[in-house]
Structures
1.
Amino acid sequence: MKIIGTGSALPKFEATNDMLSQIMDTDDEWISSRTGIKRRHLLSEQDLTEIGVEACMKALDNAGIAAEELDYIICSNTVNEFITPGLGCILQGQIGAKCPCIDINAACSGFLYGMQIANSFIASGVAKKVMVVAAEEPSRIPSWQDRSTCVLFGDGAGAVIFSDESNDVLSMRTTTTSAYEVLYSKRAMEQHPFQKEETKDVPLVMNGREVFKMAVSNSQEDIKAVMKDANISSDQVKYFVLHQANIRIVDAIQHFLGEPKEKFPTTIDYTGNTSSACIPILLDRLNREGKLSKGDVLVMSAFGAGFETAACVIKWNK
Ligand code: ACO
């Protein structure tokens, strides 16, 4: 498949580290030195649907196609106020598309899992034009009494449209290692009369150091594997488009790969971790800033709760 359009949207409201330090025991020095985050956009008066629609509309405009031309929408979302229907169904109606939609939850790796499904749909003839949209509000997962997790996240949405015009995915890999206790959150569900135990809300539980280690080692392994499968050397790679959880994770991956820093663009300083929206937001920024040329090779890689990781090599051919 080929990338034909990108779009992204961030909520209007921004919270700086200094603003957080006024409501909890933290400071800019602690947050920025450990994570690279200076500020994050949070949904305040807007809702997730609004920024999801904005990202989709920008991607359609960038692709130069109408919503009716989409054959499938794959929506990556970890949490939103609707348990059902899937967020993709809501976005479909609001952008005026008519195609089928599915939601997937592969946490922060969801956009790349969505790309893999899109690639299969296109290869098998199910669809010719597929939009993968990641719309996320991870700021609603941790407790805002827990300073070690809530400062890490921001909300956002990114969308990418793929078509069957050429075959630009050079390799792709997804892996799951069941380790839910490292990073999870639970929600209370309605009780029925035959239930023995009540379910309870458990805001995000994260073993930060373990996530850090798994992220660095798995991402490196994934990146090396997809580059080998695609038969490309590092000097052929224009950018490594990585999940934006923490600048120190990006720096560690860069260090272990032995690649120059300029090949690792980031948005983390102003977005925080927007879960699966990180990669399409970053890709859209590169596209709109004119940093991508036809033929550029991009390596994408993400990790997230599960523990699920994914990586791919794709040629920018737009
Ligand atoms: N402000 C000030 N102090 C804080 C804060 C805060 N916001 N949060 C924690 N602290 C304190 C802790 O209480 C602790 O204090 P103590 O030593 O008195 O007990 C101290 O800072 C050190 O805490 P550590 O947890 O040891 O800090 P560490 O250096 O490991 O950094 C961090 C924590 C940034 C979370 C790091 O472990 C990390 O980056 N892990 C990766 C996590 C990640 O990226 N998750 C992504 C989320 S999900 C995803 O995308 C897959």
Note: The two ends are 12 Å apart (CA to CA).
2.
Amino acid sequence: MPDIIDHALAFARETFAGDASGHDYWHTFRVWKLARRLAEAEGADILICELAALLHDVDDAKLSPETYAGKLRARSFLESESVDEAAIARILHIIGQVSYKGSDSETPDSLEGMCVQDADRLDAIGAIGIARTFAFGGSRGRTLWDPEEKPRTEINARNYQTGGGCTVNHFYEKLLLLRDLMNTKTAREIAEARHRYMVTYLDEFFAEWQGVR
Ligand code: ADP
Ligand code: NI
């Protein structure tokens, strides 16, 4: 493994120590693994994908609002590793396109960006996605589900992080939409099984809620 990957893993581990909102180090670790798998399958630049994946959340708007706009933590890490400015610009550009913002989400303009966005979104669905979503809801003091609260239908950059009610609604506001938003064929295939798993999970959740199973 190149030294820079080792260093980026250590940097991510330091940055996310103690996070309990589903954005911990192991989220970054999984996104890195998936991004590399997608890059290999899709023929993208593997090192650019790996570095963008490893750094994609270090300047997250929620976790580090003061460095978000300039992607300052990612930049200073890459500069400290003597990465050339052209590669830094490519990586920061990808990171800026990854995040989910409902109807304001961006479609990456590079194959590498598509792989990293798909990897981040794959980690939001399936068994891991379910666990992360309830962890996030718990970290914000949200109830599991409130049958009287309907999911919102219009999600955009402005209202995605604000408002929002019970955690199960997040499945309808984001998670169940992700399968059809994958950029690459490889990610679409992986998303299919993860999506089905969530549908089965919700079916069981509601059946137990009604007391019929
Ligand atoms: P992205 O990874 O595209 O930047 P976020 O950081 O907003 O997206 O969300 C990452 C994960 O955090 C979501 O997939 C979900 O598991 C959890 N999460 C975010 N917002 C909510 C919410 N309102 N309710 C429950 N979980 C959420
Ligand atoms: Ni992420």
Note: The chain has a mean pLDDT of 94.
